Amino acid sequence: MTIPIRAVFSSLSCALLLSACGPEYEGDVGDPSRSEDVSPDVEEPGEDGSVSQATFGGHLGSALGHIASFDSCAANNEWRTTCGTGAARDMSYTWTVPVTGDYSITTYGSSYDTILEVRRAADTGVVYACNDDWADGNYRSRVVLRDQPKGRKLFIIVDGYSGDCGAGRLYINGL
Question: Which end of the chain is more exposed for a tag (fewer CB within 10 A), N or C?
């Protein structure tokens, strides 16, 4: 049996198109009751939307405080951040907003120069915030997210500045 070349290319194109939107999270895609204040058409070029096990630290639930410790030197370079070089190994996590409100996400206590970016989990091309060095002399990053609705799933990327990697810490706190 021979398969027409057109059918093979059509199938491959469809598979590539579907995987380019990032990982799908149950309850966050196609839910008309959720309104996003950021356009879903903003997309980072060159990312395939897949995340390797070495880079994805997992879903953090709705925990607050010190929620993750990691070694980014053991990860891969899979994401480009919008406020940094994107040339370092990175870690990524998902987190669900526990209560409608304002939140601070920081990499305070990390041993290297970090870049922190927060995206929409259901469409990782939508960037909510990015920060590289939140205070003079402090090479850790911090973003503040205002008016986050309960149940919103966020995709958090911790990258390193100019190729840096090391032992990292991630904190999320309500404001």
Answer: N
- Note the pLDDT tens digit of each residue in 95-150: 999 999 999 999 998 988 899 999 999 998 899 999 987 666 667 899 999 999 99
d(CA 174, CA 153): 15
pLDDT at residue 169, rounded to an integer:
94
User: How do strand 91-96 and strand 153-160 relate by DSSP bridges?
Assistant: antiparallel
Domain locations in the chain?
Answer: 50-174
CATH 2.60.120.460 assigned to domain 50-174? The reply is no
Polymer length in residues for the chain: 175
Q: How do strand 91-96 and strand 123-132 relate by DSSP bridges?
A: unpaired
pTM comes to 0.69
Sign, Cα dihedral of 122, 40, 67, 27: negative
The secondary structure of 40-84 as a DSSP string is TT---TT--S---TTTEEEE-TT--EEEEEEEGGGS------TTS
